[in-house]
Amino acid sequence: MPVEESGYKKRGEPKKFDPDFKGPIQNRGCTDIICCILFMVAIVGYVAVGILAWSHGDPRKVIYPTDSLGQYCGQGKLEKKPLLFYFNMMKCASPMVLLEFQCPTPQVCVEKCPDRTSTLLTAIKNPPDWEYYKSYCREDPGNMPVPQILQKKLCPAYLISSKPFLQRCFPSLGKKGEVITVGDKETFNDGDKIRDAKDLVAGMNNATVVMEGRQVAMKIFEDYTKSWYWILICLLIAVVLSLIFIVLLRYLAGIMVWVMILLVVAVVACGIAYSSFKYVNLKDTVGSNITLKELGFQPDFSVYLHIRQTWLAFIIILAILEVIILVLLIFLRNRIRIAVELMKEASRAVGCVMSSLFYPIFTFFLLTIVIAYWGITAVFLSTSSEPVYKVFNETVCPHARQTCQPENFTSSAMKIDCPKSECLFAFYGGETPYHKYLILFQFYNVFLFFWCANFVTALGQMTLAGAFASYYWAPNKPNDMPAYPLCASLGRSLRYHTGSLAFGSLILAIVQIIRVLLEYIDHKLKGAENKFARFLLCCLKCCFWCLEKFIKFMNRNAYIMVAIYGKNFCRSASDAFFLLMRNVIRVVVLDKVTDFILFLGKLLIVGLVGIFAFFFFSGHTDAFKTAAPSLHYYWVPILTVLVGTYLIAHGFFSVYAMCVDTLFLCFLEDLERNDGSPERPFLMSDNLRNVLKKKNQAN
């Protein structure tokens, strides 16, 4: 007895009977007030960072192309010049393009791309051609001689017939048989010599890294415009199937679990039988009696399948596994039955609180706001810098990548040392205090994103837990339940427990931001040769992954206890932890059984809707050919339907899983609080009492 008492104390004291306890406590006070205040201050700071970013940022920097002076094509005074023109496209073949994402050649905004091929030398002799040619110059060269124009790089040495794409002018290359052409010609004059049209290909490949992706994106967008209503119909089917599955769990949960267990036993037994069959058949085969030790290591693993000892090892391993499974079934059969009954009870609870199935829509709406705010703020922060100019040169230059000023670059020492260099716009940065702390604002943006997203998720968990706890502790279900259990639980969570929600979310956000930093460090160390550092980093990533999973599990159960008893986060987490530790085997069995059933449900729903979407959009079935839209890529709506169906099923089943977890904790509390006497009756369902062989005594 002393040993049992000491073990119980290690796992916390069980709850004692409270005659006034009737479910989630109504008379409660605010919890974790300091965390609530800290969260509010952090939100105010988050809004301030957003306002600061919006006042300095300019998303046009990632939308519109910029010329060599950092001006936006198609904006402001360049409103009528929306296209970017490269003086020498072949310079874009330089590796510098991939390093700095900038071609080492002057770039100007133009009204339209050149529709003819000519050189500066030929155009300057013909006034009409020269007038046309000057529209592609950085500035009007006046009567300046050609060598001086080229030296100052005021005008391109040549023009090539081009077409606009991605708001940039690219040579209109074609083919005559196997020969690449530009403007229907196989060669062009670059102002210095005659070149083949194929010389432009390398430059275009670097300058149009996203060309093919943009074309695909446009086709995908067109497919969405043609198929969006059919996608919505498929997603509506997913909603209906998810509801049907949750309702059917009330009747089929037991069958599904036991059939699954029998199938596992049967599969292992078949493995033993097949291994035995192969072992016997190889008896008289030449060379099959050699031992694995004598055979040694063989790169072709199929060789081992011709050895009897291999199949004997399979028989022994599978037999041990079968015995373990059967022993576990014998000793855990009652706990499996409890898990099945709890799942059936959860289906009834969801039926009594049908509004809970639509609560994920509210959570999704809040998460959309959080994600949108984070994304918009991140874009404005990343575009709130000033234009920075650097020296670009296609040859070796001591001043390469150094900052410069385009206004006086032509007379600077850098230009004298590197005559072929150019001072071009490189990226956006700055030296002001705001720009110096920009990285901290970005970090704060990411951290608050995690904190707010976790808070929204926690709010949903606590709200659902309070609603389902009202169902369990109602003596006469559903008559003794509150009129609007979900709304009442949401009100309690926000009014009294914002601090507790913020506390749990903060702990999780800290772990998640550490994981992000570890991923960033790992990315930086990709090419590092220090294997110990890589190993240590890998261990840290694994440990923090496990820590995040554990914290999510503890937070979930802590929120359930907060929703029921109204205590602070730490006390609730402690009570939940010790309650689960006192019933650790039941926890493991219920968790695995629930995970498996919900996995089957998601697989079934996604599979059914996915198969329907495939046959409909692919046109492989005659019945759907007339109704199906004509698409560039039929996999676009199919993938959209699959992802959407999974999210819908996950949303519905997350409610169901929360219901199971809540009822399970209430069930464990019920066992510790009550004994079935008239004064302390069990509030669990009759089926659960029958599984436990417990009864409520009559008055």
TrEMBL record:
Protein name per UniProt: Choline transporter-like protein
Species whose genome carries this gene: Carassius auratus
Signal peptide region: none
Bilayer topology term: Multi-pass membrane protein
Family label: Belongs to the CTL (choline transporter-like) family.
Cited Pfam families: Choline_transpo
Job of this protein: Choline transporter.
Major subcellular location class: membrane
GO cellular component: mitochondrial outer membrane; plasma membrane
Substrates-to-products reaction catalysed: choline(out) + n H(+)(in) = choline(in) + n H(+)(out); ethanolamine(out) + n H(+)(in) = ethanolamine(in) + n H(+)(out)
PANTHER family for this protein: CHOLINE TRANSPORTER-LIKE (SLC FAMILY 44) (PTHR12385), CHOLINE TRANSPORTER-LIKE PROTEIN 2 (PTHR12385:SF34)
Swiss-Prot/TrEMBL keywords: Antiport, Cell membrane, Glycoprotein, Membrane, Mitochondrion, Mitochondrion outer membrane, Phosphoprotein, Transmembrane, Transmembrane helix, Transport
One term of GO molecular function: antiporter activity
Segments crossing the lipid bilayer: 31-54, 228-249, 255-274, 311-332, 357-381, 446-474, 494-518, 596-618, 638-668
Keyword Transcription part of the UniProt annotation: no
Location of this chain's protein in the cell: Cell membrane; Mitochondrion outer membrane
